[in-house]
Design brief:
Elements: E1 2-4, E2 7-8, E3 12-13, H1 20-30, E4 35-38, H2 41-44, H3 48-57, E5 62-65, H4 71-79, E6 84-88, H5 94-107, E7 110-115, H6 118-127, E8 131-135, H7 147-152, E9 161-165, H8 171-179, E10 184-186, H9 189-193, H10 197-208
Parallel strand pairs: 1-4, 4-5, 5-6, 6-7, 7-8, 8-9, 9-10
Antiparallel strand pairs: 2-3
Helix pairs in contact: 1-3, 1-10, 4-5, 5-6, 8-10
């Protein structure tokens, strides 16, 4: 999953003038299975316009990545062309997560439920999550450590699609996530900063094929 991201709280400005659909096309040519689009404006300089533009430009699934806490945001994403949305377990309690997952199902989309701990994985599974991501970034310090996803992987039950998130910036990192059993990786900053995003994505794909 290759990401469209102009800035972030941890990295600051990354690529303010990034052309979202052009970048997405490079990702797809490199073999990206899906595109993640930041739509949060304050911290990530994203927008639903970026999502619409990417949806019109590529044939692969598109994920709306935002701080989703209300069902209206799910329907907004669907109306803008999203195939999936991100739900962050750390920002929700168990009942809120279950309610939002039900709303996602009602729209016909999928939900990537982001976790950071084994306890959050347990909550996500109990709520009915079928795709679970493990974020290697500590949201308090912004430090990344691939060992986080490696340690949490055994707590995710069989049958759940798993995604290693954050901190993968090389073939070695992609190989570590594959070795830990992850089905996919989500790559943002490293892909945006790459001088040749198509080749960068192709290299990551080659590492785990």
């Amino acid at each position: 999953i290759a990401e469209i991201k102009r800035r972030s709280p941890s990295a600051g400005e990354i690529a303010q003038r990034l052309d979202a659909p052009t970048q997405a096309k490079h990702y797809v040519k490199g073999g990206a299975a899906a595109i993640s689009v930041l739509t949060e404006p304050q911290y990530f300089a994203g927008s639903l316009d970026d999502l619409r533009a990417v949806r019109a430009a590529v044939p692969v699934p598109v994920l709306r990545k935002d701080f989703i806490v209300d069902q209206i945001q799910i329907w907004e994403g669907r109306a803008a062309g999203a195939d999936a949305v991100l739900l962050i377990a750390a920002a929700l309690d168990a009942s809120e997560l279950a309610e939002l997952l039900s709303a996602v199902v009602a729209t016909g989309m999928e939900a990537l439920v982001e976790t950071h701990t084994a306890a959050e994985v347990e909550m996500a599974v109990a709520a009915g999550a079928e795709i679970i991501g493990v974020n290697n970034r500590d949201l308090a310090t912004f430090n990344t450590d691939l060992a986080v996803a490696e340690a949490i992987a055994p707590s995710i039950p069989d049958g759940v699609v798993t995604v290693g998130e954050s901190g993968v910036s090389s073939v070695a990192g992609a190989s570590r996530m594959a070795a830990a059993g992850y089905d996919a990786i989500l790559v943002g900053e490293a892909a945006v900063r790459s001088a040749d995003p198509r080749s960068f994505i192709a290299g990551l794909r080659g590492a785990v094929r």
